[in-house]
């Protein structure tokens, strides 16, 4: 029991924050002013950071034709017809209630096969290039077809799927009405799925989004102080900035499990560059409190655990012998990751802010 209580204490720190000091109140109130007067974030010199901003200000105008494309793309996204056994849709791994992730450590796909990576949120995929954790897909239309063909995910072939859609009792008429073409093809399917995924940006209406649009009542003073920590002592803006809260880059967080059972070499599988071993795409933090478990392998079931590990500087595996020391493939944790020395109260304020995103 004592061990369980200790583990709970280490992983959970909600409601431990003390009342803000006058200095902390002043720091929090800086963010009520124009964004141009906000204090600069604490980032390493080489980081080309971008200021935080709203996603939808103003909301984009969408034509009736584009609305029809989005609606048909949504129908396809939620239709298990796209999988070989007609039992798995794109939405199986990207559920709206989980900010379009799935709430599982790793996803279950075709024939109940287990994937080896966590299903990321696709809410901000419309802002991304080099999609998937390893960046193997160059754009959203290319990405849209990968899960259909993956033997672990939907287990189908594109040619067979196109044939199935063309023989469907209603899809040919729907495609003709929306796209004015007689025959369904691969590019149409990819474009429609991509249109729906890109449209998800406009659904985000969180307290942080409203705050960035100018509603200063959207964040409490404690959450604004968490924003200050996010930008400064917690060093989050080394990797999480701009409207998507992602640098769109790849980093090694020390979770490679090199030459061990759970080994995942990440970006290296795409580039074959030894410098990319163990690197994974920086995910967006939009609605991050809804997208757990966290990390590419779903390692952390609690967001508090993620904060605790970043506070410790994450993992920095070191060679244990001469062979490993001489190994050119031995992974190196990104030097951006350093111990932060956040107090328990500061970690709580940071958590409060992350829940607004």
From TrEMBL:
Cite the binding residues for heme c 1: 90, 93-94, 110
- Matching Pfam families: CCP_MauG (PF03150)
UniProt remark on cofactor binding: Binds 2 heme groups.
Q: Which cellular component terms (GO) are annotated to the entry? A: cell envelope
The coenzyme or cofactor needed here is: heme
Per UniProt, where does heme c 2 bind?
236, 239-240
Q: Does the keyword Metal-binding apply?
A: yes
SUPFAM superfamilies, A to Z: Cytochrome c
Residues covered by the Di-haem cytochrome c peroxidase domain: 68-216
Q: Which residues belong to the signal peptide in this entry?
A: 1-19
The UniProt keyword set, sorted, is: Heme, Iron, Metal-binding, Oxidoreductase, Signal
Gene Ontology molecular function: any one: metal ion binding
Alphabetized Gene3D superfamilies for the sequence:
Cytochrome c-like domain (1.10.760.10)
- List the subcellular locations: Cell envelope
Q: How is it modified after translation?
A: Binds 2 heme groups per subunit.
What InterPro entries would the database entry show?
Cyt_c-like_dom_sf, Cytochrome_c_Peroxidase/MauG, Di-haem_cyt_c_peroxidsae, MauG/Cytc_peroxidase
Q: What is this protein called?
A: Di-haem cytochrome c peroxidase domain-containing protein
Protein source organism: Thiopseudomonas alkaliphila
